[in-house]
């Protein structure tokens, strides 16, 4: 297991990880899709698996769910191998949506529910309950192909969680959803987290990562770039951006050796510092020249960290 | 590693069967296919009817003239032609062997007013016959004229040698021939054998193409739409492939059952057709053999179609994989005439035991001759064994193939999957 994965486990509650990848590698001929990846997803945690296109996220998820076997390394789900018994407690929302377009919403959901271990009656009742809950109650008997992309996405989500899985892998769940449905889905994910379920979220929506994820793992070319608790990662990446609200002239920013650039916002001034510049020095300069009402060192966003690390890789 | 679970196979089977049987395509094809058959058969019948010259229609009758002056030979020829008349053909025996008449006959044939004329030399015994046709597409008429004129001339020669006519007719009468089969054919008679071969081959060919393509199409669709990723979370490739093949197979049996039921029902309205159907009594052992070969053949071939679908799967670059399963289905059909004409030759025995040609060729042999029981048993075993081995190999290819998108696949690569998957 990588140091970052171990460290994160020590920092969290001392329960066994729901999912554990231990030095997992997967090659497709000359291409190494996943290279020596280790990570842990704990119960009651939303874990973000991030990376640019072609980074190996889907290959990693397929290995987690036993769809493909790793060449080296081990995958442990609920402490054991990813076999049929453990996979009964796993749900998957793939990036490429997969439903039978000619079948009704109800038949699709019942089929996937039964495949995932529910008996026919429970699968049918659960599918109706979830459709009601996600405002699809009046479309239950419609064919999937007649639904909009956003509604199909909701049906797909229900198919992934109908059997109450303890581990849910969701790949780009917010695609095609309007803001209301994004919010609804986010609330559901938070609810699942509070129920102690483990969620692996793969998305390019960094704003959602900021709002939802407890931990992240950023990979590129199949390799881990950074992994850990989101807060710790953010604090370990120094910011080069401060926001200052002051009364007085902003002349002290002009030709200042600490400042790379600055821009005026409605309620403050955003300043980008040069590499290696100390924000405290800028604060002193601001106090000496103006009446400072607010000075805030801005944390880097996940997006900024993503761009910075992936750009370097 | 997931162990094989029949429950998952059952769920895939159930979905495949239900969806397909309820689909519009199933209803349309169930009605359309027999309608197309009926239409084609009807069209062939109408064309054949129109092409045959009809009695009573003077303009469409085919006229031929045989010119012979000798009155004895003329009488024999008249008796010969009237003894073996042909529907739609008129034969005239003309005594006028003048040069002018010959010129006129020549012009009649040239303009197709006359189908043919035959010029026999005047003096008996006749040693030479000249046949005149407008072109070379009169082989049927030529054969008929040649045969009858030949027989008449032989009779005339015998008469000229003083042999009495009753003796001649007695010499020409064919002996009564009786066939005694010491190893009786399971098919009761030639008609039953012919019907069973015809029905079996066409049903097998249609089933293989249609339902095999349905299996391939279904897999390709799931691969293309990526449903397969979701399915593989809770099923294995073997369960998925098995459920599809069996599900589509049962759809096929349902459809054929409907056709048979429909045929029986409709034949009630046509007493002659019902009589013909009732005359077909296949022995229960024979019917069981045909059914077993059909089912085993379907499983064997559809496994190949499943691979075709898994490899092609909406990827244009790999579309050629879809056509490969057609070969083992069609090659045996091409060998059927050879096997039917000599069902006990070494060639027929060997090819009826090779698993990929056995379903068709063993059926052809069973219909044509009494195949030893050990050969039938060996054939069943070999097909079953190959189907099981193919199933394992195909599941390996399938497992990798269904997750391989947008990539051109080579035979080498696929062979590697079989070894290492």
Outline type of chain B: elongated
State the shape of chain A: elongated
Q: Which class of secondary structure composition applies to the elements of chain A?
A: alpha/beta
- Binned strand content of chain A: 25-35%
Can you identify the CATH class of the largest domain in chain A?
Alpha Beta
> Count the strands of chain A?
13
Largest interface: A-B, 28 and 22 residues
Written description of the protein model:
The complex is a heterodimer of chains A (313) and B (421). The radius of gyration of chain A is 23 Å and the shape is elongated. Chain A has a 6-stranded mixed sheet, with helices on both faces. In chain A, strands 11-12-10-13 form a 4-stranded antiparallel sheet, covered by helices on one side. Chain A has a 3-stranded antiparallel sheet with strand order 2-1-4, sandwiched between helices. Chain A folds into 2 domains: 3-235, Rossmann fold (3-Layer(aba) Sandwich), CATH 3.40.50.300; 237-312, Alpha-Beta Plaits, CATH 3.30.70. The mean pLDDT of chain A is 87. In chain A, helix 4 crosses helix 5 and helix 4 (105-115) runs parallel beside helix 6. The relative contact order of chain A is 0.14. With 313 residues, chain A is an alpha/beta fold. Chain A is 35% helix and 27% strand. Chain B is mainly alpha-helical and 421 residues long. Chain B is 67% helix and 5% strand. Chain B contains 16 helices and 4 strands. In chain B, strand 3 (116-120) and strand 4 (129-132) form a beta hairpin. The model of chain B is unreliable at 53-59 (pLDDT under 50). The chains are: A alpha/beta (313), B mainly alpha (421). The A-B interface holds A 62, 65-68, 81, 83-84, 87-88, 90, 92, 94, 96-103, 111-112, 114-117, 159 and B 1-3, 5, 8, 11, 15, 19, 23, 222, 225-235, 403.
């Amino acid at each position: 297991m990588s140091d970052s994965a171990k460290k994160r486990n020590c920092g969290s509650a001392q329960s066994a990880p729901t999912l554990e990848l231990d030095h997992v590698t997967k090659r497709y001929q000359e291409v190494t899709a996943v290279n020596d990846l280790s990570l842990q997803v704990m119960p009651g945690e939303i874990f973000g698996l991030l990376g640019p296109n072609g980074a190996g996220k889907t290959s990693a998820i397929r290995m987690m769910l036993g769809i493909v076997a790793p060449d080296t390394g081990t995958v442990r789900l609920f402490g054991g191998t990813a076999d049929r018994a453990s996979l009964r407690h796993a749900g998957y929302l793939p990036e490429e949506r997969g439903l039978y377009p000619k079948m009704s919403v109800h038949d699709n959901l019942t089929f996937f529910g039964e495949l995932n271990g529910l008996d026919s009656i429970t699968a049918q009742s659960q599918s109706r309950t979830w459709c009601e809950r996600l405002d699809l109650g009046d479309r239950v008997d419609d064919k999937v192909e007649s639904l909009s992309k956003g509604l199909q996405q909701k049906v797909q989500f229900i198919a992934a969680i109908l059997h109450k899985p303890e581990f849910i892998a969701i790949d780009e769940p917010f695609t095609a959803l309007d803001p209301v449905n994004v919010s609804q889905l986010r609330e559901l994910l938070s609810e699942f987290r509070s129920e102690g379920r483990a969620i692996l979220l793969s998305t390019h929506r960094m704003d959602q990562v900021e709002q939802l994820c407890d931990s992240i793992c950023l990979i590129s070319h199949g390799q881990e770039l950074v992994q850990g608790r989101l807060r710790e990662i953010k604090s370990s990446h120094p910011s080069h951006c401060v926001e200052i609200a002051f009364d007085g002239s902003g002349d002290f920013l002009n030709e200042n050796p600490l400042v790379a650039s600055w821009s005026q916002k409605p309620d403050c001034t955003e300043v980008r510092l040069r590499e290696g510049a100390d924000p405290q020095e800028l604060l002193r300069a601001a106090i000496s020249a103006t009446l400072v009402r607010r000075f805030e060192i801005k944390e880097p966003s996940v997006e900024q960290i993503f761009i910075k690390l992936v750009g370097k890789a | 590693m997931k162990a094989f679970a029949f429950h998952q196979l059952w769920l895939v089977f159930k979905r495949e069967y239900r969806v397909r049987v309820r689909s519009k395509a199933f209803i349309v094809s169930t009605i359309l296919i027999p309608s197309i058959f009926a239409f084609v058969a009807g069209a062939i019948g109408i064309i054949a009817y129109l092409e045959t010259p009809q009695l009573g229609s003077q303009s469409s009758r085919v006229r031929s003239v045989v010119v012979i002056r000798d009155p004895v030979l003329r009488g024999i020829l008249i008796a010969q032609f009237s003894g073996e008349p042909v529907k739609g053909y008129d034969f005239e025996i003309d005594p006028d062997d003048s040069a002018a008449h010959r010129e006129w006959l020549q012009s009649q044939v040239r303009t197709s007013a006359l189908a043919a004329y035959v010029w026999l030399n005047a003096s008996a015994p006749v040693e030479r016959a000249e046949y005149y046709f407008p072109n070379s597409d009169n082989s049927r008429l030529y054969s008929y004229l040649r045969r009858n004129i030949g027989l008449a001339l032989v009779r005339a020669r015998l008469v000229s040698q003083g042999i009495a006519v009753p003796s001649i007719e007695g010499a020409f009468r064919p002996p009564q021939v009786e066939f005694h089969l010491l190893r009786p054919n399971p098919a009761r008679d030639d008609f039953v054998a012919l019907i069973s071969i015809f029905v079996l081959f066409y049903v097998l060919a249609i089933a293989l193409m249609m339902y095999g393509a349905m299996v391939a199409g279904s897999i390709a669709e799931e691969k293309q739409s990526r449903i397969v990723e979701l399915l593989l979370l809770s099923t294995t490739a073997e369960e998925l492939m098995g459920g599809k093949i069996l599900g589509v197979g049962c759809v096929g049996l349902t459809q054929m059952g409907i056709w048979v039921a429909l045929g029986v029902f409709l034949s009630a309205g046509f007493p002659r057709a019902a009589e013909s159907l009732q005359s077909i009594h296949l022995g229960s052992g024979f019917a069981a053999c045909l059914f077993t070969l059909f089912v085993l053949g379907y499983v064997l071939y559809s496994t190949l179609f499943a691979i075709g679908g898994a490899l092609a799967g909406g990827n244009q670059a790999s579309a050629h994989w879809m056509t490969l399963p057609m070969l083992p289905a069609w090659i045996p059909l091409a060998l059927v005439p050879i096997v039917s004409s000599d069902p006990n030759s070494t060639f027929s025995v060997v090819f009826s035991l090779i698993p990929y040609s056995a379903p068709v060729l063993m059926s052809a042999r069973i219909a044509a001759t009494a195949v030893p029981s050990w050969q039938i048993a060996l054939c069943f075993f070999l097909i079953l064994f190959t189907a099981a081995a193919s199933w394992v190999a195909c599941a390996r290819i399938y497992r990798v193939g269904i997750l391989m998108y947008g990539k051109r696949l080579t035979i080498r690569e696929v062979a590697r999957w079989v070894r290492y998957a």
